[in-house]
Amino acid sequence: MNAILVDKLTKVFPGGIVAVDSVDFDVRVGEIFGFLGPNGAGKTTTIKMLNTLIRPTSGTAIISGYDIRKNAAGVRRRIGYVGQNVGVDEYATAWENLVLYGHFYRLDRSTLKQRMNELLDLVDLAGHEHRMVSTYSGGMRKRLDIAMGLIHWPDVVFLDEPTVGLDPQTRAHIWDYIRALARFLNVTIFLTTHYMDEADQLSDRIAIIDNGKIIAVGTPDELKKSISGDVVILSPCSAREEDCQGFIEKSRQSLADRSYVVAMQAMERDLAVYVTEGETALPDIVRRLNQDGIEVRTIAFSRPSLDDVFLRYTGKIIRDQEGVPTTYADIQRRRNKRKS
Ligand SMILES: Nc1ncnc2c1ncn2[C@@H]1O[C@H](COP(=O)(O)OP(=O)(O)OP(=O)(O)O)[C@@H](O)[C@H]1O
Ligand SMILES: [Mg+2]
């Protein structure tokens, strides 16, 4: 069964900017659905339309059986939204914040109390509910945000970058809560994130949006398999060289006729070469570039990660909180850092 069914959803802003361009996808009940895309791709616009905050120009979506165009009130009753600290009063306790939210949804006193206790247990804040939120850690804050988004038993919860600014341990902890929501409460989760590892770890399926269009949908494994083979990252640029792009372009031309090359992607200081098999391609790549007088400064190959999927489909490296990575080496450094 589908929790969300999106049908040719389109948003054209004044001035003719097509932010979302006839998008179709579906999200199943109880699924964790990752929604990824580079800056300006149309993620927020899509979520705003699904949350009935802005009206589509054309097309529509059905959420829990309600049409976002025809029955916005019905949709709002069935969805929860967890953004960055939305609506939390710092100078009130978690309990007071939850009560206030419960009143928005007109829950009666005893129902609300039962629900609050249930949610405090779920997000592991029981025992801390009478503390002022301003004394909470980042992770506790986020868990409170999640509880607040759930107070009215929504079928679908939108989580907008749920772990931004949290340390790795706390992030992993939040992931457990998100999984618990989907698994134990059968809540459908629509997740946006700029962290590829988060999308990979959490999502049952992922959609990648770019320039307002969905360019790939699948499980993380399917997406990785879809860019079959390995990825070889090489840099012909030394630290001092001015014309790095020139070297990259020369390398690209030099490898263009190799049968094992599936695709190539130039980055600021590296060239990503998608190959059918890394082990055999690697020596040939080096030989070939040397023959053409190009010196390879660094070279590495790996199985495709979701970062590679994203890069391959969008041609962009996703930004995250550590700042914009400009080379593939940055991504690998981060990957190693995460592992250690
Ligand atoms: N109110 C608006 N009026 C005009 N153009 C808009 C408006 N809101 C968004 N856009 C444009 O629509 C496109 C999609 O923007 P959107 O905010 O949906 O992207 P996003 O995927 O959420 O990006 P980010 O990762 O940076 O949050 C962009 O080109 C943006 O400039
Ligand atoms: Mg956005």
Brief sketch in words of this structure:
The chain has 340 residues and is α/β, with parallel strands linked by helices. It has 12 helices and 14 strands. Helix 5 packs parallel to helix 6.
Ligands bound here?
A: adenosine-5'-triphosphate, magnesium ion
The CATH class label of the largest domain is Alpha Beta
- The ordered string of helix (H) and strand (E) elements is EEEHEEHEHHHEHEHEEHEHEEHEHH
Low-confidence stretches: 319-326
What is the arithmetic mean of pLDDT? Answer: 88
* Approximate strand percentage: 25-35%
Q: Write down the CATH topology of the largest domain.
A: Rossmann fold
Radius of gyration over C-alpha positions, nearest whole angstrom:
23 Å
Number of helices: 12
Number of domains as seen in the coordinates: 2
Shape: elongated
Please identify the structural class as seen in this structure.
alpha/beta
Largest sheet: 6 strands, mixed
The CATH superfamily of the largest domain is identified as: P-loop containing nucleotide triphosphate hydrolases
Describe the structure.
The protein is an alpha/beta fold and about 350 residues long. The protein folds into two domains: about 1-225, P-loop containing nucleotide triphosphate hydrolases (Rossmann fold, 3-Layer(aba) Sandwich), CATH 3.40.50; about 225-340, ACT domain (Alpha-Beta Plaits, 2-Layer Sandwich), CATH 3.30.70.260. The chain contains twelve helices and 14 strands. It has helices at about 45-50, 70-80, 95-105, 110-120, 140-150, 170-185, 195-200, 220-225, 245-255, 280-290, 305-315, 330-340; strands spanning about 1-15, 15-30, 30-35, 60-65, 65, 80, 155-160, 190, 205-210, 215-220, 230-235, 260-265, 270-275, 300. The strands form three sheets. It has a six-stranded mixed beta sheet with strand order 6-7-8-3-9-10. A four-stranded antiparallel beta sheet has the order 2-1-4-5, covered by helices on one side. Strands 12-13-11-14 form a four-stranded antiparallel beta sheet, sandwiched between helices. Helix 5 runs parallel beside helix 6. The two termini are about 40 Å apart. Mean pLDDT is about 90; it is low at about 320-325. Adenosine-5'-triphosphate binds next to strand 2 and helix 1. Adenosine-5'-triphosphate (ATP) binds near residues 39 and 41.
